Amino acid sequence: MYELILSNFAMHIVLDAAEAEHIKSKLQHKTVKKNTVLLTAGETCKNIYFVNKGCLRTFDTDERGEEHNILFCPENWWAVDIASFSDQRPAFYNISALEDTEVFYFSYPVLEQLYLEIPKLERFFRILTQNGFNLYQQRITSNLAKTAEERYELFHRQYPKLEQRIAQKQIASYLGITPVFLSMIRGRNG
């Protein structure tokens, strides 16, 4: 049950058996149905989620009610509104399930306590945050400088096989194009 999250930690830190057991004792776990909202913009992000199975999305809803996908979080990814979670202030983003999804999660106070008890966890989440910031910078540059076709190719490299699992409108929203235009791109590339 814990194999994937422990291997995720192992990407950046080495936990001894006692530390791994302590972390497992503090992790919470739940399965959420497709379309379940885990965070609504304006609420405080109380948890950081690890996707063990399924897929979450982080998105913004504009004043017209249109949703704009910022990030997909399939298996082995973390999902959080980092500014809201870190500062315990209202969230800018929403997080919801694109599929029936199984997550592990830490609440803010539990993670803060774990940082004191297992200091290397702070290093892990610092690296995770740096990698996430890098990803956002690349995404912004891509959206400003690349064509829709190039963004579609980047989506494929970043999220292999996800296209078969989620709705075309979700991918189009992520790419900043209409579903009709996405169909045209697929037709040219397929």
Automatic annotation (TrEMBL):
Pfam families linked to this entry: cNMP_binding (PF00027)
Domain Cyclic nucleotide-binding: start-end pairs: 11-123
Official protein name in the record: Crp/Fnr family transcriptional regulator
